[in-house]
Specification:
single chain; 437 residues; alpha/beta; Aspartate Aminotransferase, domain 1; seven-stranded mixed beta sheet; four-stranded mixed beta sheet; binds pyridoxal-5'-phosphate
Length: 437
C-alpha cells in the first residue's frame, strides 16, 4: 500500500501506549493501520485526505453508511437529554417493540453491548434453560470473544483432526481444558456427519449454535437441509437451536431465519442493529427468555440498552424496511455478477461467494464448501494481501479477507467502480496465482 505519512506518524505514537498500537487486532495489516478523518455516506476520508468507497462498513456494522442524517439528528436530540441512566427508558421499549415485530421467533428481546455479549448471553441462557453444559458449533465459525465461542475459530491443518470429527481447538493460550471439553465441533453443511457427532453427546448438549452465512467458513450460505437437520435434532433431543445473526440479520427483514423458514429458539444479533453504536441483542421464545427473570440466569450490564444506542438502532432498523432490504440484496446480486465477470476477463482462478448484501472473493477456482476448503494457502494469503493493497490504493476499502458488505447509500456506480478496480488488481496478481512458484 502507498505511504500514508500522517497515519504512519499517528501509529508511531500509538505503539508507545497501546499494545500493537491498537485496541482491535482487526486493524493490523501492512506497515500501519490507516487513520480516518471522517466518513460520509459510503465514503471515508483518511487523515492524509485520501477518499475511498467503504465496502468494510466497520465490519458490517453500518447499514446506512457513515453519518446518516436521520440517525445523527435523532442521536443528537438524545445526547441533549442524557446518555445512560439507572432508570429504564422509553427508547428501549420502542426499539424492542420494533425488533420483536421483525421475526416470528422473537417473543422477547434483551439488549447488550456487543455481538460477543449477545452470543455469551445466548449460550448461558441455553445452559440455564436445559440444565446442560455443552454447546455445539460449526468448525471455523466466528462468534466473538467468549472463551467457549472462540473454540475452533481458527484451527489449522496441523491441529484440526478428522473432517468427520473435528478437534475442539483453543484459540487463546491458557484456555481452560474444561472449555474444550464442553464444546462439540461439527462439520459445516454436512447433515449426516454433523448429526453423528451430535449423537455422541445427545443428553449433554444445551444448544447448537449456527451462523447462517459464516464469513470465516467462506461466506457460503448454510444449506436448508443442514439447518433443518439441526432443527429436528435439537427438538428431538431437548437442546436449543441458536442462530448467530450478528452479521446476517440484514439478509431479510427478519434475518436469514425467515428466508430459511426456521424458527430458532434463540437469536444473537449485533452490529448494524445499533445504527453505528455498540450493541448486541438476544431474542427468543417466551419460555426460554424467562430464564432472565426466574432466577436461573441473573443478567445485567451497565450500558445495556442505553438510550443513545436504542435511538440510533430504532431509526436505523425502521429505515431498513422491506423495500430497502430488497434493493440492497439486488445490488448484492449485481456485485457478485460483476465480480464474477471481472474474474473471467482477468482469467484467474478465483470465485465469489456470499448472499444478499454480503459477498467475498476467494483466490480459489471453486467455492469453498467448509472451513477447510476456505483456508487459504500461504501463496493465496500473500496474493490476497497484495490484492487488498491494490484496491486500497485505487480508492476501494474491503475487509482484509476480501469480504464486502453493502450500505444503503450505495448504488450501481459504486459496484461498477469496485468491479473495474478488481479487474485491474486481479490482472496485477495474475502471474502469482497461475504460477505460485
Ligand atoms: C457472526 C458474528 N458473531 C459475533 C460477533 C461478535 O460481535 P462483536 O464484535 O460486536 O463482539 C461477530 C463479529 O464480527 C460476528 O461476525
Amino acid at each position: 500500500m502507498s505511504l500514508s505519512p500522517k497515519s504512519a506518524a499517528l501509529f508511531d505514537r500509538a505503539r508507545k501506549i497501546l499494545p500493537g498500537g491498537v485496541s482491535r487486532n482487526t486493524l493490523l495489516r501492512g506497515a500501519h493501520p490507516l487513520y480516518v478523518d471522517y466518513g460520509k455516506g459510503c465514503k471515508v476520508v483518511d487523515v492524509d485526505g485520501v477518499e475511498r468507497i467503504d465496502f468494510a462498513n466497520n465490519m458490517a456494522s453500518h447499514i446506512h453508511g457513515h453519518a446518516f442524517g436521520p440517525i445523527v439528528d435523532a442521536v443528537s436530540a438524545q445526547l441533549q437529554r442524557g446518555t445512560a441512566f439507572t432508570m429504564a427508558t422509553e427508547a428501549e421499549v420502542l426499539f424492542a417493540e420494533h425488533m420483536c415485530s421483525r421475526s416470528p421467533a422473537f417473543d422477547k428481546i434483551r439488549f447488550v453491548n456487543s455481538g460477543t455479549e449477545a452470543v455469551m448471553a445466548g449460550m448461558k441462557a441455553a445452559r440455564a434453560f436445559t440444565g446442560r453444559t455443552k454447546i455445539a458449533k460449526v468448525e471455523g465459525s466466528y462468534h466473538g470473544a467468549y472463551d467457549y465461542a472462540e473454540v475452533s475459530q481458527a484451527p489449522t491443518p496441523e491441529n484440526w483432526g478428522q473432517l468427520d470429527h473435528p478437534n475442539a481447538v483453543p484459540l487463546a493460550q491458557g484456555t481452560p481444558k474444561a472449555v474444550l471439553t464442553d464444546m462439540v465441533i461439527i462439520p459445516f453443511n454436512d447433515p449426516e456427519k454433523a448429526i453423528a457427532v451430535l449423537n455422541e453427546h445427545a443428553h449433554e448438549i444445551a444448544c447448537v449454535l449456527i451462523d447462517p452465512i459464516p464469513h470465516r467458513i467462506g461466506m457460503v450460505p448454510v444449506s436448508p437441509d443442514f439447518v433443518q437437520a439441526l432443527r429436528k435434532w435439537t427438538t428431538r433431543n431437548g437442546a436449543l437451536l441458536m442462530f448467530d445473526e450478528v452479521i446476517t440479520f440484514r439478509s431479510e427483514v427478519g434475518g436469514m431465519q425467515t428466508r430459511l423458514k426456521v424458527t430458532p429458539d434463540l437469536t444473537a444479533m449485533g452490529k448494524m442493529i445499533g445504527g453505528g453504536f455498540p450493541v448486541g441483542a438476544l431474542a427468543g421464545s417466551n419460555d426460554v427468555m424467562e430464564v432472565f427473570v426466574n432466577g436461573r440466569l441473573p443478567h445485567s450490564g451497565t450500558f445495556s440498552a442505553n438510550p443513545v444506542t436504542m435511538t440510533a438502532g430504532r431509526v436505523a432498523m425502521e429505515l431498513f424496511d422491506a423495500e430497502a432490504v430488497t434493493r440492497l440484496n439486488k445490488l448484492g446480486d449485481y456485485a457478485r455478477a460483476s465480480l464474477t465477470d471481472a474474474i473471467k476477463v482477468a482469467d484467474v482462478p478465483a470465485c465469489v461467494t456470499g448472499a444478499g448484501s454480503l459477498f467475498r472473493l476467494h483466490l480459489k477456482a471453486d467455492a469453498p464448501r467448509n472451513y477447510r476448503d476456505a483456508h487459504p494457502t500461504a501463496n493465496e494469503k500473500a496474493a490476497l494481501s497484495s490484492l487488498i493493497d491494490l484496491l486500497y490504493d485505487d480508492g476501494i476499502m474491503m475487509i482484509h479477507t476480501a469480504a464486502a458488505t453493502l450500505s444503503t447509500p450505495m448504488g450501481t456506480p459504486e459496484i461498477d467502480r469496485l468491479a473495474e478496480s478488481m479487474l485491474n488488481a486481479l490482472r496485477s496478481i495474475r502471474e502469482r496465482l497461475i504460477d505460485p512458484s
